[in-house]
Specification:
With about 140 residues, the protein is mainly α. The chain has one domain: Winged helix-like DNA-binding domain superfamily/Winged helix DNA-binding domain (Arc Repressor Mutant, subunit A, Orthogonal Bundle), CATH 1.10.10.10. The protein is elongated, with a radius of gyration of 18 Å.
């Protein structure tokens, strides 16, 4: 089980790089080179962030990507929702069918509590705090 998937991780890394870099536009080429993220993955991630209005893209020789929102207003949980749909720690599977005891399962209740705590923590971690701009 992975709490943060590859796409979310790459998005966080790219956004932190952009938050730290004071240039107007950051090219995909620069992100690939400096972050060592495979180009096909990065392009897909940047396109998704552009569609979700986290980034704005500008075409042309001096174009690239720019943050639409301030880094202090972009939270890790927002990115988890964009790339993963949310946090699920309690997806019980028994023989490829949902567990019939999910409503009465004691472990499921505890996992739901943990899930809530994880979500509340991810909702307050901003790109700015990860990039070292602010706390």
């Amino acid at each position: 089980m992975s709490l943060i998937n590859r796409d979310t991780d790459y998005a966080i890394r790219a956004l932190c790089f952009m938050a730290k870099n004071k240039k107007k536009f950051i090219s995909a080429k620069e992100l690939v080179r400096d972050l060592k993220i495979p180009r096909p993955f990065l392009r897909k991630i940047l396109q998704t962030l552009n569609k979700r209005r986290v980034l704005r893209s500008y075409k042309g020789k001096s174009g690239g990507f720019v943050l639409v929102q301030p880094p202090k207003k972009i939270f890790v949980m927002d990115l988890v929702r964009i790339f993963q749909g949310g946090v699920k720690l309690r997806e019980c599977i028994f023989k490829k069918k949902p567990c019939p005891n999910i409503r009465t399962c004691l472990l499921s209740r505890k996992l739901k509590e943990i899930e809530g705590k994880v979500i509340s923590q991810l909702e307050v971690i901003s790109i700015a705090s990860l990039a070292g701009e602010i706390k």
